[in-house]
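Lay summary

Proteins are chains of building blocks that fold into shapes. Our project writes down both the chain and a compact code for its shape. Here are two examples, one after the other.
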Amino acid sequence: FLQVYVAAYRNRKLQLPEDPSDLYEISKDKEAAMEVEFLAHREIFKFLDKAAITTLRKTPNPWRLSRVTQVENAKIVLGMLPMFFCTIIMTLCLAPLQTFSIVQGLTMDPTITKSIKIPPATLPVIPILFLMILVPIYNHLFVPLIRKLTGHPTGITHLQRIGVGLTLSCLSMTAASIMEVKRKAALPKSQPLPISTLWLSIQFFIFGVADMFTYVGLLEFFYSEAPRALKSMSTSLLWNSMALGYFLSTILVKLVNRATKDRTRSGGWLAGNNINRNHLNLFYLLLAILSLINFCIYVVVARRYEYRPQSPPVEASKVRVDSNEKAAAKIKVEN
């Protein structure tokens, strides 16, 4: 991919041919015995097409000339990047939800029954439990039902699935903000507060459903759209998205505390160890607004995305037979 970008930059002053078939590509007949992937030219990211403009050089330099298939693979990866960046904000929301909810739970009533109590540190397990229940229900009940309505093999497209999850993450942050207002309203009464810790499971339930849509949809999207040589590497994009979200969450907390340092007694919305003096509800509301803005951006880039053509793989042996038949027919005509 780096060779494609370098070649496109070096050839930036060259004129693209009117016929895309004039762009450089190896002969399918000559390469019939090799497992070479071929992709058709598409009218997107046309500035990368200049990497495939044939020059007068006898020996092609890979840093100056790329195959059409290489260029199309680079287009696919470039088109996937906006979706990758739009999903980072979801993990950015998940990180504070997991950490601050434990602190909230320490101030609330953990009693379920007289003999059963829920430890606040187990709250982040709730989304995983919901996922274990919801994923089979989604695959065996929801997908077949929606498939009858839409005619799509997966019920809804991968990008639509990601969009649903991003919407639910915004709702989860809104629910978390409302729950924090409710928790702080009970502060003067007693310790622990007369509010069950299970109330926090609402925001975790919504986020668990969001996980099912966004993370699973993102993984399927990356795997189905990635070039053949990058199928396994595409899986790492999901974990990179999550890692960047957690990292940026730390930066966001520091920025919020710095910006609100002089406006609160605790030295910031999230500063100090006393959560009752903090303004966690405002921070959750900020995350909800960021999620909404992120979703609007996602809708724009998702509507402009063009799925790669899904052509069935052709076996090398079959291509080789076809090539031999063509060669035999050519000899017969010449004779």
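And here is the second example, written the same way.
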Amino acid sequence: YPSEFLMQKMTEDNQIPVHIHVSASLQYVAGLKGNALIEFFHNNIAEVENEELRHLMWSSVLFYKTPDAEVMACVLLSTKAIYFLLDDSLIRAHEHQSDFWYQENSDCENSSFHLSCCSVLKLNDLQSVNVGLFDQYFRITGHSADHIVTCLTRDSYNTHAFIQQLMAVLSLLARTPSPEPVDKDFYSEFGNKNTGKMENYELIHSSRVKFIYPNEEEIGDLAFLVAEKMDGLTNLQSLNILLYVLAFQVNHVEGSAQNSSLLQPKTLILTSSDLFLFDEDYISYPLPEFAKEPPKKDKYQLADGRRIRDLDRVLMGYQTYPQALTFVFDDVQNQDLMQNLTLDHFGE
């Protein structure tokens, strides 16, 4: 340790997505290569001497205590813990929540020294990992509200890579295995015998950490919710969700110094007849065990919905990933232009 392969892989993964702007401190980290990156980890982040850095990923993250603040983080997985290296602007924005973000040094605000804060979740405290629909995000849950983090990778490849590495690292932990059930058959493991209803697919790792994957019913529930938003115009049997993707809605800010654009996280859902944008709560569901009451917001809140038949054209940018798409809809809203066009219009 570190092997040549690991150093090369870390260097390749150490890239901030082009559409995200981060502070100078995180840009410094993104500029590190190979051995310099490993040394930076051991000198500044690692908590014990013999831990090894195994995986690095840049991702937007959400914390349970601050569910409305999506921030960019460098996620570092070692053989002992998961570290979230965060932008210093986040700490300033949440200074009033001093129990959660505690800024020790406010003297360095005006100097050229850039501060980052690091949130740590020890692997021994890890209880479960919930994988979101179509592997667009995953939520890591520890034993308290301080230890619940959602990584919004918006990319199934990054989700898979991280979970694979996490499982490998958890296999190194020496934990006593959970007792085997007496009758270990498919139905007793995954089903509820009284209702015959499938629960979410759970994989219990040898380290006793649960990996929970969504089942088909989540898509069914989502289809039902979408049908409700369509004012019952469609019949649920014919409603198919063709695409579910975590995206950003681009709002151009006019009159700013550089014509900048504001990215608002949205869940885009495409059905055979409509295009929807939802505000989704990625952090509160399913409810953690210690939650005393349900979250203030529903999991899905409709932000916008348009009929595909009103879609006039789709404009595509020429830049590489992430691709920008502009959907141009007709101005005539909720009117079927053909409905009154009868033969009478062409009489004398």
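What can we say about the second shape? The CA atoms of residues 38 and 53 lie 7 Å apart.
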